[in-house]
């Protein structure tokens, strides 16, 4: 057993000072107050210890893109690229592609999940049944109705938690109900759906909104659109790209004030650039270029992000301090940390991650006073940091 001394620790519920974290075989055995006579520990962590971040929308990292080479090697590289920023588990995300590539991606995820101590929780299929008008960078030639082959891929039993983003105006509630009955988590996104169509999908079992505010129907006086449904319906959890480019800070604050920390989830929508020196990436007949902290195509439109989870947490905490009337800094910080850990774990139905409690996996992050990642541990093993 290894005993860590944490100067500060957030367990998912409250902040604590001077705590002992006991870890054995990758599992948290106990968390208890370290009294002055018991400060001796194997490893002392000077900073704030919190649960590892869980990213449910990550297209690439470490210089590789999942679509370009959906393999175990790519998944390992993505994990390495993101772990330095506190991500300890993820859903690799496949941008709309052919049925063949979807199946190859599923095979890679199945291979990863079969490995001991896997940090790949499943897969996020972003598409293929999206709105052509709201498809963003998703290739038009692959946007299509869900086929029987696609359904078979979505419902495989060997690929962990499956999240599927779809446009509800193109998919019947019966199909959504069938997917949910087979364990698929349905998310609404890249859609021009009106509020009635969105509510029908949620009534059918959809429980998530993909990158709130982006590529969806907006709020109008006589038509709430998907944005209003996301802000007001207690049945859905919304992903938010808090890179300060995809969503205006005031809208991030609005989402927090309307939705609260229980149903707002930080995601990166990261491309290959994160965790690498990559500046450009070929995409279809264009180039994705990294400039001033954002990724754009040749025409200037956004193309995923170069956001990491650590920056998402820091950005969200900073903007909420400025744009909300929050007086308890520790409570606000805890809420933001939960948006990157506990909320995604809850959405995915994962019980052993997202909180630092006895019996959970020892996936945790050490943050300095500026909330920058100093170290990252997965299953009790240090994977990044000095």
From TrEMBL:
Keywords: Carbohydrate metabolism, Hydrolase, Metal-binding. Zn(2+) binds at residues 126, 190, 211. The active site is at residue 269. The keyword Hydrolase applies. Residues 49-382 form the Amidohydrolase-related domain. It catalyses: N-acetyl-D-glucosamine 6-phosphate + H2O = D-glucosamine 6-phosphate + acetate. Pfam families: Amidohydro_1. One of its GO terms (molecular function) is metal ion binding. Its EC number is 3.5.1.25. InterPro entries: Amidohydro-rel, GlcNAc_6-P_deAcase, Metal-dep_hydrolase_composite, Metal_Hydrolase. One of its GO terms (biological process) is N-acetylglucosamine catabolic process. Binds 1 divalent metal cation per subunit. Substrate binds at residues 137, 214-215, 222, 246, 302-304. Belongs to the metallo-dependent hydrolases superfamily. NagA family. NCBIfam families: nagA (TIGR00221). This is N-acetylgalactosamine-6-phosphate deacetylase. It comes from Brumicola pallidula DSM 14239 = ACAM 615.
């Amino acid at each position: 057993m290894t005993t860590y001394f944490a100067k500060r620790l957030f367990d998912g519920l409250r902040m604590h000072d001077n705590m002992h974290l006991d870890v054995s075989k990758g599992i948290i055995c106990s968390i208890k107050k370290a009294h002055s006579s018991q400060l001796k520990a194997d490893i002392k962590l000077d900073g704030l210890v919190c649960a590892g971040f869980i990213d449910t929308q990550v297209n690439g990292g470490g210089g590789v893109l999942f679509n370009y080479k959906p393999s175990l090697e790519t998944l390992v590289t993505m994990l390495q690229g993101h772990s330095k920023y506190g991500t300890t588990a993820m859903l690799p995300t496949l941008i709309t592609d052919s049925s063949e590539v979807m199946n190859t991606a599923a095979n890679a995820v199945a291979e990863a999940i079969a490995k001991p101590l896997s940090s790949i929780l499943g897969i996020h299929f972003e598409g293929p049944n999206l709105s052509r008008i709201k498809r963003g960078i998703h290739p038009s030639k692959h946007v299509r109705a869900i086929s029987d082959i696609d359904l078979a891929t979505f419902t495989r039993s060997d690929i962990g938690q499956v999240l599927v983003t779809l446009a509800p105006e193109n998919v019947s509630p019966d199909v959504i109900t069938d997917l949910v009955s087979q364990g698929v988590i349905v998310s609404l996104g890249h859609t021009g759906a009106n509020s009635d169509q969105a509510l029908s999908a949620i009534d059918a079992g959809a429980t998530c909104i993909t990158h709130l505010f982006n590529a969806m129907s907006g709020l109008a006086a006589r038509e709430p659109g998907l944005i209003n449904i996301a802000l007001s319906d207690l049945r859905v959890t919304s992903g938010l790209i808090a890179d300060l480019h995809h969503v205006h800070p005031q809208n991030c604050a609005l989402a927090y004030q309307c939705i609260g920390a229980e149903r707002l989830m930080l995601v990166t929508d990261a491309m290959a650039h994160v965790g690498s020196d990559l500046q450009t990436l070929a995409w279809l007949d264009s180039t994705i270029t990294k400039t001033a902290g954002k990724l754009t195509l040749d025409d200037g439109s956004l193309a995923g992000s170069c956001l990491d989870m650590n920056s998402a947490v820091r950005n969200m905490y900073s903007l909420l301090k400025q744009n909300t009337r929050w007086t308890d800094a520790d409570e606000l910080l805890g809420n933001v940390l939960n948006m990157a850990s506990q909320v995604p774990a809850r959405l995915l139905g994962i019980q052993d991650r997202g909180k630092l409690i006895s019996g959970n996996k020892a996936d945790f992050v050490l943050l300095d006073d500026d909330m920058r990642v100093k170290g990252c541990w997965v299953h009790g093993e240090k994977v990044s940091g000095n």
